Amino acid sequence: MSDTSSAKEEIKRAADIVQVIGQYVQLKKAGKNFMGLCPFHAEKAPSFTVSPDRQMFHCFGCKKGGDVFAFWMEYHGVTFPEALKDLAERYNITITETFSSGEEKERTRIRETLFNINEIAAQYFQEALGQSGGNPAVEYLKKRALPKEIISEFRLGYAPDAWDGLTNFLKNRRIDMKRAAEAGLIIPKKGGGYYDRFRGRVIFPIFNLRSQVIGFGGRVLNDALPKYLNTPETLLFHKGEFPYGLHASHKAIRERGVTVIVEGYMDLLALRKHGLQEVVATLGTALTHDHIRKIKGYAGEAIVVFDSDEAGRVAALRSLPLFLNEGLSARAVVLPHGHDPDSFVNKNGLSPFLALLEKGAPLFDFFLDQKLSGGGDSIEGKVTVLKEILPILAQLQNRAQRSLYAGRLSERIGIKEDVILSELKAAAKGLSEGGLQKDLKDRMAASSAKQRIGDVQLLNLLVHHPIAVSGLLDTDCTKLLTDATTSQIVKRIFENYRQGGRFSPERLEESLESEEVRIRLREALVADSIYSDHEVKQAVREIEEKVRQTKMTNLIKAAGGDPEALNRVLLELKAQEARNH
User: Fold this and answer.
1) Which one of 52, 83, 226, 236 has the minimum C-beta count within 10 Å?
2) Per-residue DSSP letter, 275
3) 86-100 confidence digits (pLDDT tens)
4) How far apart are CA 395 and CA 82, in angstroms?
5) What is the rounded distance in angstroms from the CA atom of residue 368 to the CA atom of residue 366?
6) C-alpha to C-alpha distance for 203 and 197, rounded to whole angstroms
7) Predicted pLDDT of residue 170
8) Which CATH code is given to the segment(s) 450-580?
9) For residue 185, what is the DSSP state?
10) pLDDT of 504-536, one tens digit each?
11) pLDDT (tens digit, 9 = 90+) per residue, 435-459?
């Protein structure tokens, strides 16, 4: 067995997939499995299933699934070698570096190089901040009243106002300058050479959930523009993917079941300084689906804090469809005029800020308040509000939720609920041609599923009761299957059994090449068994009988009207019955 396979199997034995995934997704017991909202797509009703018996996960919505390695790779956006290394370190399992395909190994090597360069750059910025002698960044942070503990915990730094400070530092460390440019730290000159991207700025390292530096944000110390500058898109950093501070706040968020979302770096750091731990920031960008999907794995509710200016109100209104579509309950808090969270909490303390959070209105009600207060109380205004809100509500897949919001909308704007529901139905129908195609596809799939009931039963029997495999091995039961995908799985089960005298349902997935086939297998594995243990023998006998009847039917059809051929078929049938008795 290779080092990769050995380490992988050892990690699988040591790791509990429910415990691993449960750190990032809120799971609830559902029969023998656990379920939660999928972290990989928008949904309001849980379809993300984790099986402790099979040590696998599967989402019936987006169809992603697999073992603990598949989850780690998908959630953290890493390669298999990185996932293997991360989990090996987590469970104190020793591995060597003799694994991975060439292409995957090269991608892993590049990512590790970029992480190393980011770490070296973070150290450079931290050291620059610690240097005395009129350091403007030190004076800025003193003015913002940030204590040393916060500065150290979040590894704040300073990019000196020089064109080649970091560039020369990296050269002296013999860093590959091309890779440093790929990390977004330096920029190529037209005539050759490089210059620093971040100059004359306070530096805020940006971390992933494993506390690795994936990028940087920098704030100017004068009136230069842009005021804030972030790392560009790189192999490690994707704007709008990670909320700032989640690496430090996720435990507190999980404990309290709520997260406070603010806009800027300093907003978060000021709140942390005053003792509010369950807070994340959006890096100065608009909220994204990725932000909310990361957050909802830890919290059942979000409180979004907006500035009182027009931009803050616009941001609040734009966030409503994101929260509705992701199924995360949200409230909105608008700060008093002239304040952001940083200035408010530094002036008034944490208690008044917490009081504002307590009074936060549900985001849907806040949306209506803002729209109606802006001249929306007239008939024309109400129609405008309806035009804006109905397409958002029409995207909700949960009909009960859609109906509840329609009722609240009716109360607020004084339009009969049946009128709103009628308009909502029309809006839902007219969403897009794609939506209609999906509906047609779903109905066709449902029809196809009815036709495959025999396929489902046979596959369910084999994966949940492997003892049935030996009884059906030589029965030609695959001829009963009408679905090519299920047929591939059943044939592979029999092949594995013939080769080794047994088969492992959990390891079967690794031998399947098509993702469509793997999806079908995972759905069968995480489903409940149709048969109890004492019904297995009877099920095998029924399938044997069905195979025999099918064979005879085909033989009779083949004989046609030939009396002699038909007589041979009847004799064969009689002989088989005698052998069975």
Assistant:
1) 226
2) T
3) 998 888 887 765 555
4) 37
5) 5
6) 12
7) 97
8) 1.10.860
9) S
10) 777 788 888 889 999 999 999 998 888 888 888
11) 434 443 444 344 344 434 578 889 9
Query: For residue 207, which phi and psi values (nearest 5 degrees)?
Result: -115, 150
d(C-alpha 26, C-alpha 48), whole Å: 10
Higher pLDDT, 479 or 273: 273
CB distance 279 to 271 below 8 Å? yes
What is the three-class DSSP state of 62? coil
One-letter amino acid at 448 equals S
The total number of residues shown for the chain amounts to 581
Architecture of domain 3-100 in CATH?
Answer: Alpha-Beta Complex (3.90)
Question: Could you tell me which of 264, 290, 143, 273 has the C-alpha nearest to residue 204?
Answer: 264
Q: Which residues does 205 contact at the CB level (< 8 Å), separation at least 6?
A: 118, 122, 125, 154, 155, 156, 157, 213, 215, 216
Contacts of 79 (CB under 8 A, 6+ apart): 73, 100, 104, 107, 108, 111
Given the candidates 2.160.10.10, 3.40.630.30, 3.40.1360.10, 3.40.50.300, the CATH classification of the domain at 246-366 is: 3.40.1360.10
The CATH number fitting domain 106-230, selected from 3.20.20.70, 3.90.980.10, 2.40.70.10, 3.40.50.300? 3.90.980.10
Burial level of 117, CB count in 10 A (0-12/13-18/19+)?
A: buried
453-501 pLDDT, tens digit each: 578 889 999 999 988 988 898 888 888 888 889 999 999 999 988 887 7
> What does the block give as tokens for 123?
């150290």
Report whether pLDDT(54) > 60.
yes
pLDDT of 423 strictly over 70: yes
Query: Is the model's pLDDT at 561 over the cut of 60?
Result: yes
Lowest mean pLDDT across 178-192, 210-224, 431-445: 431-445
CA angle 303, 307, 312 (to 5 degrees): 90
Torsion of CA 425, 430, 431, 437, to 10 degrees: 110
Cis previous bond, 563, omega within 30: no
Residue 177: alpha-carbon gap to chain centroid: 33
Cβ atoms of 32 and 14 closer than 8 Å? no
Tally of CB atoms within 10 A around 387: 11
